[in-house]
Every structure is written in C-alpha cells, then in structure tokens.
C-alpha cells in the first residue's frame, strides 16, 4: 500500500503539530500548512492563509506539484476573538467565522478535486465542545465550530459513495499556550467542571485524529467525536 499523503492546516504548533506527529508516526507523509511563524523541523510545509481562496489554491498547487493530491485532510487552522455579545462587533464575528468555518470550506472544496480522483479520502474537522454546549463570550467561535458539524455531515452524504469520509473531532479544554496563561484558580475551576478532572493533552486529540484517518475507521462518517473528558456528554 502506498504511503498516504496528509495535509494538516495550522500544523506548526499546538494541536495541529501534535496531529502532524501522530499521522507521521502512523506512516503518513505529512505536509503542514502555516500562516505565520516558522514551519517545524521534520515536516514538509507550505504557507497558506485559509481566509484567502487564492492562498489556498496556490498552496494546493505547490502540494500537488511536489507530492501529489492529499488524501487525508485535517482542517485544524482557527482563531478566537472572544467577547460578550453586546461588545462584539460584526468584524469580530465575521473574522472568526471566516477563518474557522469558511476557511475549512475553502480547504475542503479545493481538496475534494483530488479526493474524487483518488476515490478515497478522509476529511477531518477539528471542532470544539462549545460547538454544541455554547460558551459565554464565544458566540462567534461557538457558531463557527457548530457549523463544522453540518458541513461534515453534508460532505459525508455528498462524497460517501466515492469512499470519502467526513468527521468532526470535538476537543474540550486542552493544554495549550492559551490555557497555560490562565491563573491557577481559573484552571482549577475549569478542571473541576470536567468529569475526568483534568485538561486534555494535544496528543490525546491527535491519537483520535490518527484513528479516524486510519483504515480502521473506514466505516465512520458524519460523526461528531468528543475528546472532552465527558464535559459535553456526547452532545
């Protein structure tokens, strides 16, 4: 069997980098995309801004020319611009939805051309527990992550007959640079709200992504898979 080619957007740090390592360990040839910063050592990389159709097209052109069409697509790139609804302006809302939801659409639409030719593939969106539960101060982020579920399930119906699956992984609170900056009381309160009593590691999310990308998950599509320590209780 040939080595599968995987693309991980926003793969140069945090959850995306952990996913890239897990897929590489599983035997995939991993290409990561990044918008800013430096690409990590040990991976092929392309610059891509998911908020720009032109940037997405150019990145895919480079990938296809050098390595072929990716058959594992992990849409991980995303941003937050938190704020209470009465203080959130339209730009804050639209910017987050454009990056997290429309950005995932841009990548998936462009990737689908190659997947349909291959007649196989995995589309994996990195969602969030707040996509189902909601979160005060995150109307924009929650809406964008909720939208990924409808997108994945529509793609599952459109592309399933070609052997292409589409699923959403929904992390809860994760040990990242952002959560590391929280004060100790806030971290304790958050951990206390999780049935397992702790934050998730990026590697725990990455392991689930690697499974969904594997042949063992060939009959799973249209699913919302929580990796949240029980916080969402399956919602």
From TrEMBL:
BP terms from Gene Ontology: monocarboxylic acid metabolic process
Oxidoreductase among keywords: yes
A GO molecular-function descriptor: oxidoreductase activity
InterPro entries assigned: KR_dom, NAD(P)-bd_dom_sf, Sc_DH/Rdtase_CS, SDR, SDR_fam
Residue intervals passing through the bilayer: none
Domain spans labelled Ketoreductase: 4-193
Keywords per UniProt: Oxidoreductase
Family affiliation: Belongs to the short-chain dehydrogenases/reductases (SDR) family.
PANTHER family cross-referenced by the UniProt entry: 3-OXOACYL-(ACYL-CARRIER-PROTEIN) REDUCTASE, 3-OXOACYL-[ACYL-CARRIER-PROTEIN] REDUCTASE FABG
Designated name of the protein: Unannotated protein
Species in which this protein is naturally found: freshwater metagenome
């Amino acid at each position: 069997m040939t080595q599968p080619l995987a693309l991980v957007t926003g793969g140069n740090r945090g959850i995306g980098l952990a996913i890239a390592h897990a897929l590489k360990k599983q035997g995939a040839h991993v290409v990561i995309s990044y918008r800013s910063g430096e690409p990590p050592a040990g991976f092929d990389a392309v610059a891509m801004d998911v908020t720009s159709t032109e940037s997405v097209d150019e990145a895919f052109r480079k990938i296809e020319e050098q390595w072929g069409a990716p058959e594992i697509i992990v849409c991980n790139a995303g941003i937050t611009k938190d704020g209470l609804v009465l203080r959130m302006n339209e730009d804050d809302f639209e910017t987050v939805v454009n990056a997290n939801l429309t950005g995932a659409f841009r990548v998936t639409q462009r990737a689908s051309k190659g997947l349909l030719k291959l007649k196989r593939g995995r589309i994996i969106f990195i969602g969030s527990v707040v996509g189902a539960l909601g979160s005060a101060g995150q109307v924009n982020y929650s809406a964008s992550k909720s939208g990924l579920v409808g997108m994945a399930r529509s793609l599952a119906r459109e592309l399933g007959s070609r052997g292409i699956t589409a699923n959403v992984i929904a992390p809860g609170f994760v040990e990242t640079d952002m959560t590391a900056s929280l004060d100790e009381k806030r971290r304790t309160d958050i951990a206390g709200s999780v049935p397992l009593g702790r934050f998730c590691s990026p590697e725990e999310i990455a392991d689930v992504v690697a499974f969904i990308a594997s042949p063992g998950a060939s009959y799973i599509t249209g699913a919302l898979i929580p990796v949240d320590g029980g916080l969402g209780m399956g919602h």
